[in-house]
Every structure is written in C-alpha cells, then in structure tokens.
C-alpha cells in the first residue's frame, strides 16, 4: 500500500480547500466558545460568591453536572433539547458553540475559584475598607489577579476545548472532523485521510500551546510579582 | 414542555445495558493504560535517545489529537492494513492508548513534585534502595497520584461515549438508538446524562476516599 502513497496523497488534493474551511470553522468556533466560556464562567463565580445560598447551590450543581457528563451528550442536548426548551431555533454551528461554551464555562469557573482561594485573604476586606464598592473590587483587584494567575490552566482548557470541538461533527457542523469523514466516504482511504486530519489537529493544538507558553513568559516578564 | 415518565422508565433498562459495556471498556482499558503510561514514563527517562523521543512523540500525539479522530483512524483505518478488531477491542485499546499518554505525564509530575534531597537523605540514614522506594518515595507519590488519576479516570469514562460512532453498544449508542426510535430527546438524553453524572459523582467520591487513604501519613 505504501508503493502508491504519493498517488493516494494526490487523491486527497481536491479536499485541501475543504480542509482549510473545516480548520477555520474548528478554530473560529473554539475561539468563540472560549470567549463566551470565560464570560459565563466569571459570572458563575460571581454568582457563587455573592448570589446567596440558593443560587450558589445552583451553580455548584451546574458545574458538577457539566463536569460529570460527556461533552458528546452535552452536544446532543444543545442541538436536540435546548432549542425546544428555549423555544429558539439553533443552527448546528450555533448549538455546537453553545455546548462548548457552556462546557468551558463550568471548568473556567472552577479554575478561577482555585485562583481566588490562592489570593491573599486580606485583599478584598482591605479594598472594601478603602471604600471601594464590590463591583470595583472585582473589576480592579480580584479579576485581574485571577486571570493572570490562571493563564496556564486557562490555556490548557483552551486546548481541551479545541479537542472537544471535534464533537461538533456529531451534530453535522462542517468542522475539520466532518471534512475528514466526508473525504473518507468519497476516497475510501480512511488511513490516509484520518492520519492527515490528525496532523492538522496536531499542528493547530501545538501552535495554540506554544502561543500560550509565549503569553505566560510575557506576563511573567511584565508582572514579575504575580506568580 | 412535559416529560413522559413512561419513556424514561422504559429507557432505563436498555441504557443500563449500555452502561455495562461502557463499564467493561473502562475497567479493562484504564488499568491497561496505567500500566502502559508507567512503562512510557520509564522510557521517557531512558538513556537511549530513540526510546526517549518515541515516548515523547507518543505523549504529544495523545495530548494534541482529538480522541474522536483517533477512534475514527483505528476503526476505519486498521482493517485497511489487515488488522480486523471488533469495536469492543478497539474501544479498550483506544482507552488504554489515551490513558497511557496522560498517565505518563501525571507520573512524571508526581516524581517531579518530590523534594530532591529526600532520596539522598534516606539513603544516608542507611535505608536500602528498596526501602527508600517503599517508605519514602511511593507513599508520597500515591498521595499525589490519587486526585490526578481520579480526574483521568472520569475523563476516560466520559470519553468512552465517543465509541458510539463505531456502533459499540455502550451507553451513548443505546441512547442514540432510543432517540431514533422514540424522538423523545428530552427524556432519553436526560436519563442518559443522569446516569453518566451519577457514575462520575460516585467515581469522584471513590477518588476522594482513595486520596484520603493515600495521604493518611500526613495526618500522623
């Protein structure tokens, strides 16, 4: 089979355009879901800290359910159940991003909570004593430090999110995994197609984690006292 | 929106049948992966460069390629090179392969967390090499490994849902059959999610218990 490897790779040529499109979808959906996930995750943390007992309990159960169920099931729920419950039609891509965002939010809120526990205990009372309202305390004192401290786990979460984004193919989003499956059906060369797909994912994820190491170094240089 | 509890009730039995397959894959695959990861961790510290590099490449593949792609590659690709394996065997192998890559890194981090002087200190106090491992290194390693291995186990348990794409009759596959049959997405997916969640919570509790047991020396 290796004799005609170059010929087989040439057979994949027509799919290059699809691969590029699929890769763009994978990356764009992951970035969008990550941004939403960070916003929702931060809100979850705020609710857990300031929302009173009942709401804090709701957040705890939410985080536990998200962390305790497969992303694949969450994807199916976002596509088949949420539109009916919310009475809001969702395209596959919208449902996919929503599922990934809701998933990431739970992990982000736990990462930020871990960072919050490592924060100097006196900082919040000190800021309050200086007359800052809680909103300003979070805006200027707490959140900046939480995010700086959380850069390594947050970037790790982003790579996990990129990997989980391949599950969007289950609900027919035209991402990299879907392109690979379609190309397999048309060429009947699963070994070559999925190996090539693995290489593309590897490249994207490797770039993402390299970039994150760069960001960590930058932040460590600018803010030597944070870590 | 109303929930049809009749459908919930009639789905439970097929779903539990699926859970049994899920459990079988995990019970075989995860311990195999832990053994594999331990071997790879030793290879990564090998003095032979080829072994060191191959071990590194393996770990990086696991960390940077989605599980779904790996499953597709094994399920559709292996028959093309003359390796015909049933879906169950592929499930166990893929679980072991993935677990191994992550466990290797967990193990390396655990050894890295040990203060460097401890082994030399124990040796200079007259403990033999085996005694150092038995009384100084391993007890501390287990305390570190317990929580990380628990999250890895839960992660692989959840990722086993991906085997539904190769028609392995595990929990998610059974759930897909039921939704295709009844279109009762809320009831069936809700019940499926509940089963996964309960199992994850139980695994988490077991993990906390094992962590307490592994770190009991800290409370002496």
Textual characterization of the structure:
The complex is a heterodimer of chains A (227) and B (220). Chain A has 227 residues and is mostly helical. In chain A, 81% of the residues lie in helices and 0% in strands. The longest helix of chain A is centred in the N-terminal third of the chain and has 35 residues, at 16-50. The mean pLDDT of chain A is 90. Chain B is mainly alpha-helical and 220 residues long. In chain B, 79% of the residues lie in helices and 0% in strands. Chain B has 8 helices and no strands. Chain B is flat. At the A-B interface, helix 3, helix 4, helix 8, helix 9 and helix 10 of A face helix 2, helix 3, helix 6, helix 7 and helix 8 of B.
Largest interface: A-B, 42 and 40 residues
Characterize the biggest β-sheet of chain A: none
**Uncertain residue ranges of chain B:** none
Given helix and strand content, the structural type of chain B is mainly alpha
Average pLDDT rating of chain B:
93
Number of helices of chain A: 10
Query: What's the tally of helices of chain B?
Result: 8
CA-based shape of chain A: globular
Beta percentage of chain A is: under 5%
What is the terminal separation of chain A in angstroms? 53 Å
Structural class of chain A: mainly alpha
